[in-house]
Structure formats: structure tokens, C-alpha cells
Specification:
This protein is mainly beta and about 110 residues long. The protein has one helix and six strands, in the order E-E-H-E-E-E-E. The protein has a single domain, classed as Phosphoribosyl-AMP cyclohydrolase (Ubiquitin-like (UB roll)). A hairpin with a 6-residue loop joins strand 5 and strand 6.
């Protein structure tokens, strides 16, 4: 089923929806970020991944400072229309630490 931005439920998390960023080829989960209506619209318009930074309280495009960009090839919406996946082609690592993915730490038992 096709969805539009108007279908996305931004009401549950202060105007934000979680965005899982996934490599379109390997299906590896790269990161989790948040989008508001404006950043999602910019993503659709430009083909680059745009997000809302909760810590900096501003829009940001992945790679605008690092050059490690994510070209969004497809956007998937979950069944409740309150979470999305960006399927991307990547240039460089996804994590600000330089790791390929943000999920590189293992939670260990005591």
C-alpha cells in the first residue's frame, strides 16, 4: 500500500518518527535516527537522508559535515504509520565514531 507524508503519524513522539536506516544491498541496519515532517519532505525532495537532531534541535543531512552520505532509494512505512525505514546506498560509515554501523556495541550480562 502506498503512503504519503500526510499518512504518517507524527503525534506520538513530539512530532517525530523513528527512522531505521538500512543498507539497501546488504540489509544491514546502519543507524536509528528521527524525522519530523520537514526532514521527511527534504529526504523525498533531495534523495539524501535528512533527520531531526534531538540534541541540537535542528534539521541535519547525513554527510553534510563528514561527507558520509546516504542516498535514499526507498522509504518504507510500518503498519501503524509511526515508524519508517530508509533503504540507502552509503558512502562511508554511518556512525559518527567512524564505525560502519552505529550498532557495534554488545550488551553483556553482568
Amino acid at each position: 500500500m502506498n503512503k504519503t507524508i500526510a499518512d504518517i503519524d507524527f503525534s506520538k513522539n513530539n512530532g517525530l518518527v523513528p527512522v531505521i536506516v538500512q543498507d539497501i544491498h546488504s540489509k544491514e541496519v546502519l543507524t536509528l535516527a528521527y524525522a519530523n515532517k520537514e526532514s521527511l519532505a527534504l529526504t523525498q525532495k533531495t534523495g539524501n537522508s535528512w533527520f531531526w537532531s534531538r540534541s541540537r534541535n535542528k534539521l541535519w543531512m547525513k554527510g553534510e559535515e563528514s561527507g558520509n552520505t546516504q542516498k535514499v532509494k526507498e522509504i518504507l512505512v510500518d503498519c501503524d504509520s509511526d515508524a519508517i525505514i530508509y533503504l540507502v546506498e552509503v558512502t562511508g560509515p554511518a556512525c559518527h565514531t567512524g564505525e560502519r554501523v552505529c550498532f557495534h556495541n554488545v550488551l553483556q550480562n553482568k
